[in-house]
Amino acid sequence: MSTSLIPDPMQLWRDAVTRLESSVNSMVTGSMDSQEVMRSLHQFSTVSLGLERAFEKAIGNYLAKVNLPSRKDIAELATTLQRVEDKLDRLLPATEAAAVPRPARTRRPPGEAAEALHVKATPRETAPAAPVKRAPARPRDRR
């Protein structure tokens, strides 16, 4: 079994739960007065908060090493995306203006596009085109 420099966060959590169960069992089975119970609960909440922070830090370090976003990163991204969407909604036209039909997207001007639909195309004369004579290429003058 290889040892890792990164502590296993799940093992830390299992150890904490095991300790918690043993503490609760000893509290319930033993006869303690309320001061001891309150002190124990206070210690438990302090330890629990510390373990939670250590667990979050270990998971954050692990996610950073494997190049994955954390829950905090995703929440920040969602907030930023919501701000962008809100700004975009303010820039978009109102729904009444969006309901106005747009002209057809053609390369012809609007008048010609309508005429082209009603006028049948006439066949072109099929006379062969005259060959184009080109001047011979001149050698470049090199100086």
Characterise the protein shown here.
The chain is an all-alpha fold and 143 residues long. Among the domains are: 1-68; 69-99. The protein has five helices and no strands. Helix 1 (9-29) packs antiparallel against helix 2 (34-65). The longest helix has 32 residues, at 34-65. The relative contact order is 0.05.
Summarize the helices and strands and which ones pair or pack:
Layout (H helix, E strand, L loop, with lengths): L8 H21 L4 H32 L5 H21 L3 H4 L11 H9 L25
Helix pairs in contact: 1-2
> Beta fraction of the residues?
under 5%
Count helical runs: 5
Q: Mean of residue pLDDT?
A: 76
Q: Care to count the β-strands?
A: 0
Give the uncertain stretches in residue-range form.
none
Radius of gyration based on Cα positions: 39 Å
Gap from first CA to last CA: 78 Å
Report the principal-axis shape: elongated
How much helix, percentage-wise, in residues?
55-70%
Major sheet: none
Q: Which structural class should the secondary elements be placed in?
A: mainly alpha
- Strand and helix order: HHHHH
Keyword list:
143 residues; mainly alpha; 5 helices; 0% strand
Q: Quick gist of this model?
A:
The longest helix is centred in the middle third of the chain and has 32 residues, at 34-65. This protein starts with 8 loop residues before the first helix and ends in a 25-residue tail after the last helix.
